[in-house]
Design brief:
single chain, 0% strand, mainly alpha
């Protein structure tokens, strides 16, 4: 696990920028991985794309001052 990612996990709460960095690091790690089977490769590519959409949604929400993430379809409030 990269040191920067480990430091994020050690903090109590992440800022928007830290969350975006963590999502980006995870996506980059997935991008370097290759699945041995079609199932594994499909799951890795889907996860990579999902993380990209989530991180972009986070950036858009931060710019708009919104608590919602457009990448998440159903966002019911707790």
């Amino acid at each position: 696990m990269p040191v920067a990612m480990y430091q994020f996990l050690m903090s109590e709460k992440l800022t928007d920028n830290q969350a975006h960095d963590l999502l980006t690091n995870a996506r980059m790690t997935l991008a370097q991985a290759a699945g041995e089977t079609v199932r594994a490769e499909t799951a890795l590519r889907a996860a990579e794309k999902s993380l990209m959409l989530l991180s972009l949604g986070l950036l858009m929400a931060a710019e708009e001052g919104s608590d919602g993430n457009r990448a998440i379809k159903d966002q019911t409030q707790p």
